[in-house]
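As described in the Methods, two query proteins were run sequentially through the folding procedure within a single session, without resetting any intermediate state between them. The first query and its resulting structure tokens are shown here.
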Amino acid sequence: MKNKIKPYCFAIFLGIYLFSHEKIISSKISFFLKQIFIKRNMILVLFGISFFNFCKSSHETFIEEIQELVEQEKYEKASEKLKEKLQFPKDRDELLSAEAPESTRIIEFSNDRLKLVWTEDQKIFFQDLAAGENNSRSLDQIPSNLSLSQNANYALVEYTMQASGGCRYVAISLKDSSLSYEAGAQVSCKSRGSILPDGSKIYYFVDDNLYEEKTVEPRKPVLVLQRKKSYHLFLI
């Protein structure tokens, strides 16, 4: 009986076959799962790249549109598009207030961009973004304009005078109520005045003549530069 396979040999052969077959199936399943994982990651990567390229191309398209408008000397249209882009709300934007004021807000920053000042109807707000300080003051009427000192601690507020059509200036402190001084002259609403960082003096034009005025009583505007002299200096 040389050709007969012994039972224990057959059992060993069957065991080896089943083990090998199981390893092959396991290897195939593992390879299949790896392929799925790789393909899924590739899809995510490609999606991310496509999204980035879309954002980039959108920004580049906007820049190209602005450049084209500038080349065509359509400056007003280019300016309008830029304003729309800048004014479009973003996720990180912070609301100044929950309700919109009846009049248009006037918004100004200090020179270092760390202090923010804005108006809402007959009220002016001060915010120190670095120090976390906040303050607000009531105003005589709705302002038509305002000029900040370099450090934004003081403001020269402009009010329109309905009867005469001119404007008046009031110098105020934004951090507290230590200063509230009305200038002694009526000015043109087309020009803007200025105030020193310590709030001690204001400057403004009347008929193209430059005046200086201390923010203390009695009110005494002082002419510092006449129109003819200013033209002479300009020509030099």
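Immediately afterward, the second query was submitted; its sequence and tokens are:
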Amino acid sequence: MRLAKINMALSVLVTVLFLGNNGYAQPNIPKDKIPSNLSAEVKAEVEDLYAPEAVKRAQAANKLGDMGEKAAPAIPLLIGMLGDSAGIELKTDPESKIAENTSPGIEAAVALGKIGDPALEPLIGAMKDKNPHVRVLAAVALEELENPKAVDALIVALQDKNLDAQASAARALGEINDPKAVEPLIAALKD
């Protein structure tokens, strides 16, 4: 149910991403600086985050998310992928004519949510990124974590200049359900 809500929110966001920058973003850590002590499974997916094909980058992020906390060493790389808005279309069911729109950045956000609390502080830091797509997707991942420690950063994001970032922060605050967020949410509704 929770993943379905994230996927629905991300479907709306992907439209914005397609209209905006359709670039290619590798992780912000040079490939030759990947830690050598990663497990073989994590290392294989981390290396695929550097692939020139958006589909391969998205699949690698997805697989890292499926590993959960085991993929925690990849968090900085996944944070660096949040700005990767290269649009791709995936068919989740070969029999279906309906395809799901996504991007490596969206898949990185979902992965960070699946990795869990080790991603909390890096995601809070990403809420200050200059790229609005990064802020939007960081809020989406924080929504999945439902950690009250994210509330202050999300409250600040209610005043973001980007409306999508504001909306993502509001959804995350609603999901976290911390009483401290009630007044700021009401004030944001009045704006």
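Strands lie at 88-90, 100-102. We note this only descriptively and draw no conclusion about the first query from it.
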